[in-house]
Amino acid sequence: MKRKKLIVIGGGAAGFFCAVTAGALNPNLQVTILEKTNKLLSKVRVSGGGRCNVTHACYEIAEMIRNYPRGSNFLKKAFHQFFTTDTVEWFKQRGIALKTEADGRMFPTTDSSQTIIDCLLREANQLGVNIIMNAEVKSISRINEKFEILLSETRPGNKEALPADFICIASGGYPKSSMFEWLKQLGHGIEEPVPSLFTFNTPGHAITKLMGISVQEARVRIKDTKLEQEGPLLITHWGLSGPAVLKLSAWGARELASKNWEFEIRVNWLPQYDEQSLRETFQSFRSKLPAQKIISKNPLGLPQRLWEFFLAESQIQMDKNWADLPSKQQNRLIGNLVNFEMKITGKTTFKEEFVTAGGIRLSEIDPNTMMSKRIPNLFFAGEVMDVDGITGGFNFQHAWTSGFIAGNSITNLDSNRDVGKGL
């Protein structure tokens, strides 16, 4: 019997998971991964500072989907087939244990992304998955219910079209990529891709001299919008980063792109306070610590260098004590602590690690199979769809889920037999 062919476009997490799922469930299927670069699983490698944030320790679907600015309703259906517990079990069956950190992020116990990469490569090798590197897709044609894939001229000698019975597109979400042109030619609608999960640039701002300083909890609000997030905040040499900013960039991806990433923010470095409650607290300090120098007695728990920065910004003399703090300077300090104004002019993304908002319209994909509603036997997995999550392992969980469902569905179509997620 002639073996049917599955070609997976994209050698990332979603593409690999589709390939190894299909290969495991149907050994008669000939599976090939096309990767446009000379690197496999590049986002897996850099995720979590090189540790790979595999998923998030969230075991309720209703709670999990709240972490996806786009695609939550789509994933609500998909997660019933392959969820966090399935991800943990899948890696466990292959000798990879995951651990949960205080913030819910889950990493391999080795604290190395290479552990996950080796696992996926080993699985692909054992299943006979063919991997072709530097294979950039130029076009896809549909001929007699089959596909032909034409690669670009970057691979000399590869001018012949590659035939396929099934295709899974798992090629990520590159903004302004030619990839979206050939997807449009196939008849699919595209939600314009824009960057998500990026940091805020404040070139020339005095606060960047404090690079490396972080606070465990801050509230960041974008002026004249409803966009607001709380969480750890990090000062960098180019501006602000950390979970609070990254989450804000995800929820505001489209709105901030429309502003060309130029806007104003308000930072509350002490989100447990507002101006009124902090003013009352200051009155208490003045009563209890009258002779103490303000600079040497920092009762609010902020990093010392950050505290000194705000004193200087508020024009408070460094030898001033609490009893002699003038009302004008006190009010200025309170304002800086709970409503610090900053102008953002630009963003910084993390190359392979950044996430894209946008992609194939979800109304054109069946969440139960990941198959196109327009073109039979064409599937999607991962970030190429208009689904993206905040930082914390949510994007990888979408990759594992969509990759598994696509691989499982392809197997069902080819063999017409019932399969399970435990394989």
Key words describing this protein structure:
FAD/NAD(P)-binding domain, 5-stranded parallel β-sheet, 2 domains, single chain, elongated, alpha+beta, 423 residues, 32% helix, 7-stranded antiparallel β-sheet
Q: What's the CATH class of the largest domain, please?
A: Alpha Beta
CATH architecture designation of the largest domain: 3-Layer(bba) Sandwich
CATH fold naming of the largest domain: FAD/NAD(P)-binding domain
On the 0-100 scale, what is the average pLDDT?
93
Number of helices: 13
Q: Helical content, roughly?
A: 25-40%
Give the end-to-end Cα distance, rounded to a whole number of Å: 24 Å
Q: Quick one: how many beta strands?
A: 20
Main sheet specs: 7 strands, antiparallel
Q: Which structural category fits the helices and strands?
A: alpha+beta
Q: How much beta, percentage-wise?
A: 15-25%
Low-confidence stretches: 416-420
Describe this structure in words.
The protein contains 13 helices and 20 strands. By secondary structure, the chain is α+β, with helices and mostly antiparallel strands. Strand 7 and strand 8 (146-151) form a beta hairpin. The longest helix is centred in the C-terminal third of the chain and has 22 residues, at 394-415. The two termini are 24 Å apart.
Present the secondary structure layout.
Elements: E1 5-9, H1 13-25, E2 30-34, H2 42-50, E3 55-56, H3 61-64, H4 72-78, H5 84-93, E4 98-100, E5 105-108, H6 113-126, E6 130-132, E7 137-143, E8 146-151, E9 162-164, E10 166-169, H7 179-185, E11 190-196, E12 199-201, E13 214-222, E14 228-235, E15 239-241, H8 243-251, H9 253-258, E16 262-268, H10 275-288, H11 304-313, H12 327-338, E17 340-345, E18 347-348, E19 355-360, E20 378-380, H13 394-415
Parallel strand pairs: 1-2, 1-10, 2-6, 10-20
Antiparallel strand pairs: 3-5, 4-5, 7-8, 8-9, 11-19, 12-15, 12-18, 13-14, 13-16, 14-15, 16-17
Helix pairs in contact: 1-6, 1-13, 2-6, 10-12
